[in-house]
Amino acid sequence: MTTRPKLAGQTAKHRNQTPTPDAIAQMLRIDHAGEYGAVAIYKGQQAVFGRGKHTRDLAAQIKEMEDEEQKHLDAFDALLIERDVRPTALAPIWNLAGYGLGVVTALMGEKAAHACTEAVETVIEQHYAEQVEQTKDVDPALSATFAEFREDELHHRDIAVEGGAKEAPGYSVLSRVITAGCHLAIKVTGRI
Q: What is d(CA 62, CA 14) in angstroms, rounded to the nearest whole number?
């Protein structure tokens, strides 16, 4: 009986295994869904911040991050087609959940929105870092894509930290809940 390499929460032993084509397809499915959710989060935040005079600069900053996430999503759209990988059936749920998370955290205030971004981008950049390592020898072009997108996620995380993410009311709880949600989404998306 063979087992496929774990992607989320994997052990060091599994990280050093060469990923199978099925594991790479799973990576692409998860990453596509993650970028889809990220675009939705930023759209939700913009829906709130774009309305206020004092938050228009923040809305513009969020729009720039959304545009980068959209670039990632477009790349994964193309990769799914090119490699004949089906997207997750949960995309409509991640769209709704992402948009809702963006709206709710924006309504909680700028720092809570930044805390959301920091938590999400931290999980995603770590996820990309694992994928860079897993694919660097078997698919260098895909590994380079993961590395490029990881740098964008790190940039978004840094913007959020500089914007006061850790000063958000209830930061610790908010961050833990969002982080746990991201890990759960990764796990479920890999299977459905």
A: 36
